[in-house]
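Worked problem 6 (solution included).
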Amino acid sequence: MSSIRAKLRPAVALAACASLTLAGAATATGEPLANPNLPDRLAKQVDADKVNRHLIAMQRIADSSGGNRAASTEGYQRSAEYVAAKLERAGFDVTRQEFPFTYSETLAESLVVDGTDHPVTIMSYSPSTPEGGITAPLAAIEPDDTPGCEASDFGDVTGQIALIQRGACTFAQKGQAAAEAGAVGALVYNNEAGMVNGTLGDPDAGVIPIGGTTKADGEALAELDGTEVTLELRALMEERTTYNVVAETTTGRDDNVVMAGAHLDSATEGPGINDNGTGSAALLETALALGGNAKVNNKVRFAWWGAEEFGLVGSTHYVNSLSFEQQLDVALYLNFDMIGSPNAGYFVYDGDDSDGEGAGPGPYGSAQIEASFVDYLENSVGVPTEGRDFDGRSDYGEFIAVGIPAGGLFTGAEVIKTEEQAAKWGGEAGAAFDPCYHTECDHLGNVDRVALDRNGDAMAYVTGQYALSTEDVNGVAPQSPKDRGKIAQQRASQRMMASQAAEGHSALA
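Solution. The predicted structure is:
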């Protein structure tokens, strides 16, 4: 799971992914009637044992490929081909969409104060310190409503390392403001329990080395204002390429496509079995249960994103590769990032902003998507849910930015589970939802398989529901086979006319 949406660089397609989105792929007139029992069937077929088999495959791929499945690595490519091969055998139209990104791998991260080590995590795309680090006085910045978001918040911190509370603006903005005020480095401490695992979103956004730490450590360090500290943050950065895997049913209308996605890449630190093997594996099993020639009213397009951990690069590239008309063909987007956390919570993205926190509501239709997930989990499974803010930390980001309604599921990352949440869901209060988030212990032992099974069922059910109809989301009612046949004939005629016109133009030329 990434921390903020990245600015996208120009990209090159390995295969023309747009071929999955153009309205030219007409629906066959002999297409079978949609199956009204599809949601229930999918929920029954997507069981924990089948999903777990995919997780075992990802673990073994990581173990035999350097310990991780990070974008552009052997582990990622083997994971992507594992997914793609199964989808091709199931009858899907499969595309591999290549794009460039900046790869980053941590080399060193340490913070020493009076001879004592304190936890610190380098921000993705942070500039590096010299080997051995930088030693400078700590400058604790007094928190306000927009802590460290403007240079005026700092005063003169020339030659110092700024200590800033998280909140109100991006990590990149805080680093840039600190640098403008003269700081040679920056530390951002959390405004809630848990470690800050952040990204600057883009390699060009970093101006000084910047890392994150916990709320407790940050508040303790603030008492040491003026004390000399040694901060070492170093990372390898280089330009690489990787790819998304996108698979689409051959059936259903192609101007009202249901999309569901999960990022396939792990962080560089470990195999990434919860983050995000769980979302990827459940999504794969949902697709296989549906099949490429499913009896659906709407095409279903599944995506396994690359380079999410480097700033949501794959999903951002995909959305930006679509024309406005092609974006209109996407009815909605469902996102599944970490759905089996070992100390699980049951979060549904807050489409209507009923919680009143953070980024606000999603585009119109997002509230209805939220209601569909809540209804299934609370009424069919019997587990209570909580809202999750659209905070920009996963692949729904660019879909929402262009107005596509979105929703999805999440079981928690580095944030600490409260007493109230433990009473509601079980698990351990005062511990992170995923204590192995972005570490080497995110392996097969780091999954709550009950939560994974429940969320896999919810994923399958809601995907199947929207494959039949998105009327509650965007007002588009299901078409009869007769209607679909007429539209197919009209599109075939339009393509023929366009082809004849092109031939005529060529002859005149």
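Discussion: The chain has 14 helices and 14 strands.
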